[in-house]
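User: quick one, sequence for these tokens?
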């Protein structure tokens, strides 16, 4: 029984953290873009601008976002960028992608970035191996080679 309770708690915690990371990505997808500048540069009309602002304000906190995307935190990407393409139209959406996502599909960009650096976080802050002046082994004072003082 204790194992079952522990497993449920662990899964619940993992789901929360995963979901919270999805919400953080969602918020960054809004805050990283100068929407007023984009609307001006693409010459979007008032109706399009209002729809974009409404879309940006749709989920202003984690709870409202989680009610919609808690079961599938990755789905916001497809929903959001599909809606932006519908609002802007294919031509202006293409210009938006070129400016902010280097021409790539934003959904693919967020999917490829969601695991960046996680595999290597444990390596940050560790001393790097430096070769000595002769190109072989550790240099003086670096690592555990001859002549290093520890």
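Assistant:
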């Amino acid at each position: 029984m204790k194992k079952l309770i522990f497993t449920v708690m662990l899964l619940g915690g993992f789901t929360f953290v995963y979901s919270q990371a999805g919400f953080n990505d969602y918020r960054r997808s809004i805050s990283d873009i100068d929407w007023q500048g984009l609307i001006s540069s693409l010459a979007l009309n008032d109706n399009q601008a209002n729809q974009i602002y409404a879309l940006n304000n749709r989920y202003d906190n984690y709870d409202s976002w989680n009610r919609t995307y808690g079961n599938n935190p990755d789905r916001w990407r497809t929903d959001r960028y599909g809606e932006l393409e519908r609002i802007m139209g294919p031509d202006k959406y293409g210009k938006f992608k070129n400016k902010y996502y280097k021409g790539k599909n934003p959904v693919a960009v967020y999917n490829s970035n969601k695991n960046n650096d996680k595999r290597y976080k444990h390596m940050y802050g560790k001393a790097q191996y430096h070769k000595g002046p002769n190109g072989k082994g550790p240099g003086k004072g670096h690592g555990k080679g001859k002549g290093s003082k520890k």
